[in-house]
Amino acid sequence: MWFSNFLLSNEGVLLSVFLLLLIVYHLRNKNPKDFPPGPFALPFIGNFQIVGKKHPHIYFNKLAEIYGNVFSFCFGRDKMVIVSGYKMVKEALVTQADNFVDRPYSPMGDRFYSANSDGLFMSNGGKWKAQRRFALSTLRDFGLGKNRMEQCICEEIQYLQEEIEQEKGKLFRPAGLFNNAVSNIACQLVMGKRFDYSDHNFQLMLKNLSEILHLEGSIWGQLYESFPGVMKRLPGPHNKVFSNFNKVREFITQEVKSHKKDLDHNNPRDYIDTFLIKMENLKETDLGFTETNLVLCSADLFLAGTETTATTLLWALVFLIRHPDIQEKVQAEIDNVIGQTRQPSMADRPNLPYTDAVIHEIQRMGNIVPLNALRVAAKDTTLDGYHIPKGTSVLPVLTSVLFDKTEWETPDTFNPGHFLDADGKFVKREAFLPFSAGKRVCLGESLAKMELFLFFVGLLQKFTFSVPDGVELSTEGVYGATRVPEPFKVHAKTR
Ligand code: HEM
């Protein structure tokens, strides 16, 4: 009697609805047979213990120790598969390249892009292939492989050196300068011009970019990806991602407009010109050669090409200042091979094996894209014996590769020896994957490597970097879509 009374009461109705929802949720979200194991996920909110973790990539490494190299994890209601360790990440990205080449749906991406215009980073299928091929060939035409890009980087190094010299050895923040210098290379490529370090509007644009990347990887970004319906209606920092992205889009739209005014069909100056010409010649729009998509692809190149390389250069300062003996050894090698006045060139790289090894170790330990970007299973497949159904999001974690205990002699120690043989010659390492791997490997890898080498050598040729006595630079990093060093100031003593 009391039970039927309870069921008819307000509390009873509420409890019944809740239980019904739980049963529906359970039936809908039941794991398929042989799905990878993972930590217990709460209904509706999933494994929300990740929220508030300062370093999710380290947390994932710990989960891999418990559940193995292929395990499942729930962001909100979305179940995804996390892939860890060099061998398994290579299996997913290289051996099964076609199965995991696409990006999954992203609520945030959905607001940046549209069905017909989804840029370079988020596009899939024929449109992605056409846009990627076009971007790579434009990159080649504008200098990669020839020395035009090299010259452009060397010119920028001179501007950067002059700017640093003006600090006269006093403490300064290198982040803004490095961002501007590196961004100028992407700008030369995309829009054929550079921006002066004193250009206030451009500085604001760069601040926008940094904020986008920081917020995308923050708890706010994670909440938006998991609960877009709710987060869209709530105030909070996540809204800044969209307003900042609109500013970047507007900035590039203006560039496209001015390019259209003085476009010379026989003499394309940059990516925007080449795209505009392609658009006129190719009437098909389903390959993404539209003006809206031009703006979005340019924004992707600008975003991906700025913060990543600039952040790696900041990590370079952190590690060299923490290891002054290594800084000295790099400078001695540069002095010996290039001297202090001639500009560096890519032809010098084979003669600077120690310097090259140090740059690689900075990229490994800097680990600037710790989680990598998401992929999605194009069809039902198997990883490590587990069933991965079509449509499952897959995250091949780069931290787990760059710090894989079975691949690196001293994974947690800064050790340029990882890239040197017994005779001091540079050696490539298979598990060096900061740019990811497979068909969707970083599109700017060659450009980034050229920039890192030339900027790094150009900086150490001219300056010795240090911090005041008693200051120790942290290697912990601040986690966003990229992992950046905590803000710091340095002295740059002219050599
Ligand atoms: C140190 C510098 C850099 C690092 C560590 C880096 C790393 C990465 C990573 C991990 C990805 C994801 C790949 C995947 O999904 O498997 C990526 C994608 C991408 N990167 Fe980079 N990147 C760097 C510099 C650059 C530069 C300089 C550019 C362009 C000028 C660039 C353009 C892109 C683009 C367009 C994509 C998307 C590729 C696609 O989806 O097909 N990156 N990058």
Report on this model:
The chain crosses the membrane at residues 6-27. One of its GO terms (molecular function) is heme binding. InterPro entries: Cyt_P450 (IPR001128), Cyt_P450_CS (IPR017972), Cyt_P450_E_grp-I (IPR002401), Cyt_P450_E_grp-I_CYP2A-like (IPR008067), Cyt_P450_sf (IPR036396), Cytochrome_P450_fam2 (IPR050182). Heme binds at residue 442. This protein is α+β, with helices and mostly antiparallel strands and 495 residues long. The chain has two domains: 1-30; 31-494, Cytochrome P450 (Cytochrome p450). Helix content is 52%, strand content 7%. It is built from 18 helices and ten strands. It has helices at 2-8, 10-29, 56-67, 86-95, 107-112, 125-141, 148-165, 174-191, 200-217, 219-226, 228-231, 238-261, 271-281, 291-322, 324-337, 353-366, 399-402, 445-462, and strands spanning 70-75, 78-83, 375-376, 381-383, 386-388, 393-396, 463-466, 478-479, 483-484, 491-494. The strands form four sheets. The protein has a four-stranded mixed β-sheet with strand order 1-2-6-3, sandwiched between helices. Strands 4-5 form a two-stranded antiparallel ribbon. The protein is globular, with a radius of gyration of 25 Å. The model has no long low-confidence stretch (mean pLDDT 91). Bound molecules: protoporphyrin IX containing FE (HEM). Protoporphyrin IX containing FE is lined by residues 120-121, 132, 186, 300-301, 304-305, 308-309, 312, 368-369, 372-373, 434-436, 440-444, 447-448.
